[in-house]
Amino acid sequence: MAQTYTVARLSTDKVDQAFPLMHALEPQLDIDQWRRISRSTREAQAAGSDAETILVVAGPRGYLLGVCVVAFVGKNSGDSRATVSRCMIDSVLDPEGVASALLQTLVELSERAGCTRLRISIMGTDETALAALARARATLPPLSLTIEMT
Questions:
Q1: What confidence tens digit (pLDDT) does each residue in 91-106 have?
Q2: DSSP single-letter state for residue 141
Q3: What's the number of CA atoms in the CB half-sphere (13 Å) around residue 110?
Q4: Helix or strand or coil: residue 50?
Q5: Per-residue b/e over 67-100, b at no fewer than 16 CB within 10 Å?
Q6: Chain-centre distance of CA 19, in angstroms?
């Protein structure tokens, strides 16, 4: 049976739940720093900034299975791109399903922002997420943007 995953911007009520995922990527990060980062990101978005966006992936029961930090740079310009600086997937049973839902949302947001490229940083992404994202990318239909994993 196929799982249904929900990808959304990080909301205030999910900040603490997302912390273990970010902490796994950045062990030096403490909960207070994470709360400040997530608050400033949400405030910048509310003000209409092109600042980073934090996305989370939730499973059918509401547990967070993924977190992703993406920035949209040069919106609607000739060199506009979405850059994923950090990404973590924490699903033992279905990392491909989580990655597929996340990648589909990233593509939709990138296209909506007028981006021509989606760049996923290898340095800020855990190995499970990279492998799952690569497999998910292979299942996408032809796109109007280029996906780079660098």
A1: 888 988 999 999 999 9
A2: P
A3: 26
A4: coil
A5: bbbbebeeeeeeebbbbbebbbbbbeebbbbbbb
A6: 14
Range of lowest pLDDT (86-95, 102-111, 129-138): 129-138
Alpha helices in 13-126 (DSSP H): 15-25, 31-46, 95-112
Residues 71-94: tens digit of each pLDDT: 988 765 667 888 998 999 998 889
Q: Domains of the chain (ranges plus CATH)?
A: 6-149 (3.40.630.30)
Q: Give the pair of three-digit tokens for residue 8.
A: 């959304």
In angstroms, rounded to a whole number, what is the distance separating the alpha carbons of residues 18 and 54? 10
The token pair that represents 138 in the structure block:
């292979």
Measured CA to CA, the distance from residue 62 to residue 150 in angstroms comes to 31
The tokens describing 66, both together, are: 């993924």
